[in-house]
Amino acid sequence: MRKPLIAGNWKMNKNVEQARSLVVELLPGLQKYSGVERVLCPPFPSLMAVSAMLVGSGIGVGAQNMHWEASGAYTGEVAPMMVKELCQYVIIGHSERRTYFGETDETVRKKTLAALSVGLIPIVCVGETLNENKANRTAEVVGRQVVDGLKTIQPEVVAQIVIAYEPVWAIGTGLAATGEDAVRVVRNIIRPALAGMYGPDAAQSIRVLYGGSVTGANAGEFFGDEIDGALVGGASLKPVEFIKIVETAVR
Hints:
Layout: E1 5-9, H1 16-30, E2 37-41, H2 47-54, E3 60-63, H3 80-84, E4 89-92, H4 95-101, H5 105-117, E5 121-126, H6 130-134, H7 138-150, E6 162-165, H8 179-198, H9 200-205, E7 207-210, E8 229-232, H10 239-250
Parallel strand pairs: 1-2, 1-8, 2-3, 3-4, 4-5, 5-6, 6-7
Helix pairs in contact: 1-2, 1-10, 5-7, 7-8
C-alpha cells in the first residue's frame, strides 16, 4: 500500500518568525492525521527553526531545492548533506526552478541521485506548459521528463522517489486540472513510463502526487487509486485549507 503524502511548498514566503507562527497554527490539526505523511517545505532560512519545532511531531520537513555536488565553489547553493541535517525530503525540478533558474531533466537527474545517496526522499516534479498542453504534447513532455529525470536511478531505490505531476499552467493560476485529467496523465503517461524503465510492480510502488492550485474544496477530485496525495502551494500557507486537504487525503 502506498501511504498518502501531503507536502506544503511555502515557496518564497514567510520569514523565520512568520514560519514559527504558521507551524504553531498548523500543528494541532496536522497531528490528528497520522495515516498520512505530512511535510512542510519552508524557505531555507526557516528550515532550522521549523525542523526544531517539528521534532517528535510525526511531521516531516522538506527543502525546496538543493545542489547535486557534495561541496565546493558553488556560491549561493546548498549541498545534499546540509539539507539532510534538517530535512527528510527535498523538492526537485519544480516548474518554477525549470522556468526561472534553468533546471533541466539532466540537473533533475543529478539532484535526484544526490538526494538518494544521502538518504533524502526526493519529490520530483514533472508537468507540461499551457502551450504544450494545447498542442497535445502532454504525453511527449511528461514522459520525457520522467524517463530523462530518472534514467540512471537504480531499481532497488526507485520506490523511495515521489513523483509530483504539476501541470505548469495550473500552478498559482487558480486553474486546477480536473481530477479526471490528472488521473489520466498519471495512469496513461507517468506509470507506463515508470513501468517501461523498472517494470509494472515498481511503477505501482512509486507514489505520485498532484500539484497545481489544490485547495480544500477540490482536493477530493484528485486522491484515489492513481494519485497518492498533493504537493500544495498557496493553500499550504493557510492552516484551515491545508489541514482540510490532509483530512481529505485520509478519507
